[in-house]
Design brief:
heterodimer; A: mainly beta; seven-stranded mixed β-sheet; four-stranded antiparallel β-sheet; 11 strands; 0% helix; B: mainly beta; six-stranded mixed β-sheet; 12 strands
Chain lengths: 117, 116
């Protein structure tokens, strides 16, 4: 089956620091990965679409310079929260689409919980 | 406009009761996909079902069943004889083809509490 791994699963950092979250497809190649954000007791909101070898496409309202996305290989996408502040505390979930798979065959990672003090 | 509406914020039932989680969607596409995911307290999303817009056949998988009705734009999820382990937040999602290729629209989720 398709497995997506996220690391770290949880992180606590001080305000002003940057945090990198990795999303890896373990047993398949993913041309496209997606980053979601989920506030407590709320739904998942798509932040950006990450395409291997090209710039990410951000959803309206998402700051590109704040949330840096890099998809350097077919198995890895990273989300860096730059100069994190308490309001960035959230649950971040990535998903990946297997190369060649149908449009809607997405596998989700287990999520990364960020707490900014 | 909200593309996926889950009107039930939270539902509490006693074990062995049946429970139905409602999902209403909105799209102009003729080809689309509907999903249900389970999110336990640990946070990971567990895929339950995917249904394309051309397949209105209801589906049953063990204690789970889904009722897809295009006429009312609904894709409801029923758990029969609920168990404590069913306690989680359940999300309904819509994926459109075309310009929004691969973009998932999630509902706000329904938190299900199954009490022993």
């Amino acid at each position: 089956g398709a497995v997506v791994s996220q690391h770290p699963s949880w992180v606590i950092c001080k305000s002003g620091t940057s945090v990198k979250i990795e999303c890896r497809s373990l047993d398949f190649q993913a041309t496209t990965m997606f980053w979601y954000r989920q506030f407590p007791k709320q739904s998942l909101m798509l932040m950006a679409t990450s395409n291997e070898g090209s710039k990410a496409t951000y959803e309206q309202g998402v700051e590109k310079d704040k949330f840096l996305i890099n998809h350097a290989s077919l198995t890895l996408s990273t989300l860096t929260v730059t100069s994190a502040h308490p309001e960035d505390s959230s649950f971040y979930i990535c998903s990946a689409r297997k190369q060649g798979a149908g449009a809607n065959v997405l596998t989700f990672g287990a999520g990364s919980r960020l707490t900014v003090l | 406009a909200q593309k996926v509406t889950q009107a039930q914020t939270e539902i509490s039932v006693v074990e062995k009761e049946d429970v139905t989680l409602d999902c209403v969607y909105e799209t102009r596409d003729t080809t689309y996909y509907l999903f249900w995911y389970k999110q336990p307290p640990s946070g990971e999303l567990v895929f339950l079902i995917r249904r394309n817009s051309f397949d209105e056949q209801n589906e049953i998988s063990g204690r789970y069943s889904w009722n897809f009705q295009k006429s009312t734009s609904s894709f409801n999820f029923t758990i029969t004889a609920s168990q404590v382990v069913d306690s989680a937040v359940y999300f309904c999602a819509l994926s459109e083809v075309g310009d929004n290729f691969n973009k998932f629209y999630f509902g706000s989720g329904t938190k299900l509490n199954v009490k022993p």
